[in-house]
Write a structure and sequence with these properties.
This protein is an alpha+beta fold. It has six helices and six strands, in the order αβααββαααβββ.
Length: 155
């Protein structure tokens, strides 16, 4: 998901596999389908302002588009590429502080906060705290998520 050249990366993986080997991976579906990403981006944006776009380059959603992912894997030497929809909650920590530490470790979050004036960054962190608190239940901070379970065979 974070490959600058995904075809080259998956070609290397295919070469390391035995003939007719099976590739199995779970990748995020589109940003909009993942409550956690939408909530983080909205929290980092100033109220009424635009949602900050992720920095260019490889990101966790680079294999979200089925046709593009299928083309990448086929070009890398895989066949019988299949996608299965996975909708499962994702756990962000036992409490709000743990979840905030986790979210602040994301490249996207770091980049947005780095670009903001100190007062705006502090407000954004406050909005993140509030948003995470709203997702806190008895067993931690949870968000809905959508992923693809992708399977393929090495040709």
């Amino acid at each position: 998901m974070f490959f600058a050249d995904p075809v080259a990366a998956f070609s290397n993986i295919a070469r390391a596999m035995r003939a007719d080997g099976r590739l199995v991976m779970v990748v995020w579906q589109a940003r909009e389908a993942n409550e956690w990403d939408v909530a983080i981006r909205q929290s980092l944006a100033e109220p009424g302002g635009p949602v900050n776009l992720p920095p260019p380059g490889p990101d966790p959603f680079s294999l979200a588009d089925q046709p593009a992912a299928r083309r990448t894997l086929t070009a890398a030497g895989f066949a019988s590429v299949r996608f299965t929809d996975v909708q499962e909650p994702v756990h962000y920590g036992r409490d709000g502080a743990t979840a905030l530490d986790w979210v602040q470790g994301f490249r996207y979050t770091r980049e947005v906060l780095r670009q903001l004036e100190p007062a705006a960054a502090a407000r954004a962190i406050g909005r993140l705290r509030e948003m995470l608190a709203a997702h806190l239940g008895d067993d931690g901070v949870w968000f809905d998520s959508r992923a693809w379970l992708i399977t393929a065979r090495r040709t």
